[in-house]
Amino acid sequence: MTDTIKLDARIPSGPIEQGWDKARFEMKLVNPANKRRHTVLVVGSGLAGASASASLGELGYNVKCFCFQDSPRRAHSIAAQGGINAAKNYPNDGDSVYRLFYDTVKGGDFRAREANVYRLAQNSVHIIDQCVAQGVPFAREYGGLLENRSFGGTQVSRTFYARGQTGQQLLLGAYQALERQVDAGTVTMYPRSEMLDLIVIDGQARGIVVRNLVTGELSVHLADAVILATGGYGNVYYLSTNAKGSNATAIWRAYKRGALFANPCFTQIHPTCIPVSGEYQSKLTLMSESLRNDGRIWVPKQHGDKRPPNEIPEEDRDYYLERRYPSFGNLVPRDVASRNAKAICDQGLGVGETGLGVYLDLSEAIDRFGIETIRERYGNLFDMYQRITDEDPYETPMRIYPAIHYTMGGLWVDYQLQSTVPGLFVLGEANFSDHGSNRLGASAMMQGLSDGYFIIPYTIGDYLATAKPAKVTPSHPEAQAALASTRRGIEKLLGIKGKRSADSFHRELGRIIWDCCGMSRSAAGLKEAIDRIRTLREEFWQNLMVPGWSSDLNQPLERAGRVADFLELGELMCIDALDRNESCGGHFREEYQTPDGEPQRDDEHYSHVAAWAYTGPDNPPELSKEPLQFNYVHPSQRSYK
Ligand SMILES: Cc1cc2nc3c(=O)[nH]c(=O)nc-3n(C[C@H](O)[C@H](O)[C@H](O)COP(=O)(O)OP(=O)(O)OC[C@H]3O[C@@H](n4cnc5c(N)ncnc54)[C@H](O)[C@@H]3O)c2cc1C
């Protein structure tokens, strides 16, 4: 592994508060009359993709937007529950743009780029105004102001919410803005369409190869720029809180065409999910972190205490987060809450049949505020819990356990959200940008909407006005080569005719990664995981069974392609985790911890973004490093005590 590519993040010089203004002023503009002459492809219609498509359509660009679902409204963003952060300071409790910036850099354990995070905090206040103007029904206080609640890693209330359905309401807002442009003719929507390759011509991203998931037809779409807003890769673990369809194919194939992949091992385990209940489960369900506002987390103090939770008196309960972290209590960041839940269960104090669970108890809040208030705040989450577990959380504490939830890693982008392939921009969870090694709750939607509504409309104009992409046609040899290799890839999957389903390989891969590159990692475990993934991948290419054919709706075929990519990405995650000889945020290397079990960073050697380049099949990836500088929030040992 050698250092090869010099990464220029294009961070504006001067004071951080003025950076984005300065950058915008220095950007070139596309004349309004010329915008319609530029075609932009947007892959993804979640919060990041829908907001980008709507904004670019409104500006007058000719936009084509793709998603694999039957409607943009079904993007995984619809599942987001708890809320979206913004430094509005409505509760007057001490918040500011600077505090949101500070909390995010610290929460990410000093592995994020300061300039990006500052801009994100600045944009946060505009997002709320934009969404309110669209009619997003945020919760309101009695006096009419928008209401706020708290999320982990902060001591202020800055999270705007719409019950436990904030993502759904935000996506409906973005979707309406998108459909308005569809109606106006600036955006053409391509649902049930899966991007399978990126077309790079003369070093610039110029198009994509797409499979129509209903007819199987492959087609080439060319443009002046390509935007990927394709979400995260948490489903590499098989069991996750992500929608079943979420996958890494778009970013992985862009990686193979030259886009660098940053910090792939930075994945987030969420502390409050419904525990795994059986071998054949295919999905995990999140109980929003917002419940930690009013819920208290505890386990019985005594080993083997099998009494029903309501019969265990106060003095026999261990509220371990409140005990260990008196300042933040149940609102410590996700990485801290998850690790503590694992540690307490590893000590044999976990609850439920498997012993892999802790109680999340809202009984005190129900007594204090009344059942109706709690129902208003979290009603849909309680209903969901009851339907899945057949236990009534109004009567008995919920059982929760950590599960994979979000990926901070993703394609490397500079300050303009451009990848290392000119003309390829990456937004939302698909990029690595703003969260360092641990994302704070309610910050993902903020980032996706900041990228889509407030950043890409500027930066894409600068690219188009500067790069002036020449005209290309589908007969271009690179476009035809990408089309042919996609076809060969599909035929290869169908031609193996082995005995195992893609799902069974995926489940096995997920187990390996969860065990060795999940909540805690070690050099020995990661080396073993790399060997096991390679062996599994070999078997995949010899023993995969995909029924049916390519010229039709074929979901096992779709899954097989995605699993093939996960089998490669999983290895890169382990390589990255092995290379990072420190603990930070969600990346907890057992060898590097403080005496009381907190992550031990190594700023001298690892204060950088690790960006990996593809070098061909069976060749090791090459590492480039973007050094991180902290001029405003000085790295310290994170403490929530
Ligand atoms: C259960 C749950 C609850 C959450 N709650 C919160 C919360 O309260 N607050 C918060 O801030 N964050 C939350 N998050 C995180 C947040 O929801 C996501 O990070 C965010 O919605 C991602 O948005 P996105 O637009 O980047 O991607 P997504 O919403 O995942 O959209 C991806 C889009 O890309 C398309 N796509 C993907 N691959 C292809 C391809 N190859 N070809 C064509 N199209 C493709 C999909 O069809 C889809 O339209 C939650 C996450 C989960 C799992």
Polypeptide structure, described:
The protein is of the alpha+beta class and 641 residues long. Among the domains are: 271-404, Flavocytochrome C3, Chain A, domain 1, CATH 3.90.700.10; 477-606, Up-down Bundle (Methane Monooxygenase Hydroxylase, Chain G, domain 1), CATH 1.20.58. The chain is built from 18 helices and 20 strands. Helix 11 (363-369) packs antiparallel against helix 12 (371-389) and helix 15 (502-517) runs antiparallel to helix 16. The model has no long low-confidence stretch (mean pLDDT 95). Flavin-adenine dinucleotide (FAD) is lined by residues 43-49, 66-69, 75-77, 79-84, 166-167, 193-195, 229-232, 241-242, 246-247, 249-250, 286, 288, 405-406, 428-430, 442-445, 448.
What features would you highlight for this structure?
5-stranded parallel beta sheet, 641 residues, alpha+beta, Methane Monooxygenase Hydroxylase, Chain G, domain 1, 5-stranded antiparallel beta sheet, 20 strands, binds flavin-adenine dinucleotide
